[in-house]
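Local shape tokens:
==================
===
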Amino acid sequence: MKRLNSKDKDNRLWINEYHNVRPNLEYPDCSIVDALMAVSRKYPEYFAYEYFGKKVTYREFMRQIEDVAKSLKNYGVGKGDRVTVCMPSTPEAIATIYGVNLIGAVACMIHPLSSEKEIENYVNQSKSTFMVTLDSTLEKVLNIKRNTKLQKIIVASPDTSMPPLKHYLYKITHYKRKVRMPKNDEDIVLWNNFVSSAPSYVGVCHEASGANDPAVILYSGGTTGTPKGIVLSNLNFNALAYGAHEMIEETMPGNSILSLLPIFHGFGLAVCIHAPLLSGMKCILIPQFNSKQFGDIIKKTKPNFLVGVPTLFEALLKQKLRPKDLECVEGAISGGDILSSSLKKRVDAYLKAHSSYAEVRPGYGLTEATASVCLTNKGEYINNGIGIPFPDTYFKIVKPENHEEAKIGEYGEICISGPTVMMGYLNNDKETNQVLRYHDDKRLWLHTGDIGAMTSNGNIIFKQRMKRIIISSGYNIYPSYIESVILSHKDVASCTVIGVPHKYKGQVAKAFIVLKDGKEVNSEIKREIQELCKKNISKYALPKEFEYRKKLPTTLIGKVAFTKLEEENDEK
């Protein structure tokens, strides 16, 4: 879908709110790996990442990326091909993403906890023939392989790049969970065997890609709740990185960021990996976050920058740290969900009490706009505020039923236009055209499905989501998808899923189920429904509670009144 540049007068109310921020930036016509190469030439001996104490320089990281690219070429992967990456945040995973980009292919990111059916659907949507996956996910992949066009599956483990002692301890502590590799299956290749083929490649592995070529496909429920692939370009990621660097002064070369959010999440890949790397920072990779170890991780790694969802900052408050333990923290950003004023105050006070002068700054974004599009200025937080837009990013509040712009302070749908807006949904023009629309100003606008307002100085206020959505530890859970899975059971007549409060995760899913006439609730039906959910729903989205009823409350027109169920749950 071609984008048009508006020649209209600049009416961005927030320009005067920029403090040492350029409202317009220049973006190179290159790939994400080309942009990373430029940084590595500038800071070759700076550290690109740290993994369980092992530090790797930008020069070494680029060599790893090139080895992956050569190995991919050896295995027949070419320009335009799709490579599925089903991994947590490990060195192998990020080297694969950039290695795939180097040969002009596209990385398709999948959550390792996805169900077999979800993995099958994602692989088939992208038409991937090549996959890099975690060893603990291999069994699920093999179970669905025959239903896909996968030809090669590369298997890595979280301990592959750990330093020797950590590697040894990992093998001991995870001995019982050791994955048995299939014998005599040439389609399954261990990571070390895969990259060892790099020296044998003869030829050029760098395939030039432009700014508007696709780079990554991330899977999400989108703005309507049905799982779909979100196609993001090289420009999308690079513009996000340059914009974040402009908005956040702590993103300085040589500084470090605690990269806690996973790479299969837009926030994790764009904000916690690519943006810091293009700023010359060090990414401290954490493949699996454990809130109980949060304090120890900070004390060991001494990060300068924290980025997370509200539940992560809730976890920070529970850490027993010494007065000087947060002295290293210069900045903190919260996204993924609304940061309440009370939590912000508590986090800011905790940071100060532990010798950090940082304050947590709320932001806002969605995967369709490469995860981050606006950020609160330091010292300028307002209740339910999500900040001001990034450079070159336009916000508009429109009346939900049309494109008419709302008045200042009036609530409407949040629409976004700018260089981080996605290319579209994978193989789904209908849904793409529903959310990407040209307005009379000739700009292409992303309709977010979120309700908000704009103040007279351009700050954005968030109110609520138009769509039904549950946010659990920063992950989007879509009730309609869970309902469709449960309704596929032969004995289920109706089902409604709502979000219920959770002390740590914020919300979790709860399913209300009505069986068909003549069917009685018993242990067998309960077990079948739970197994159905486990097979088709990601682990993080699984309902934490199933409640069986004779009937569900309905509205006057006969629809299930899920808001009534929410009210009943709140009263408990």
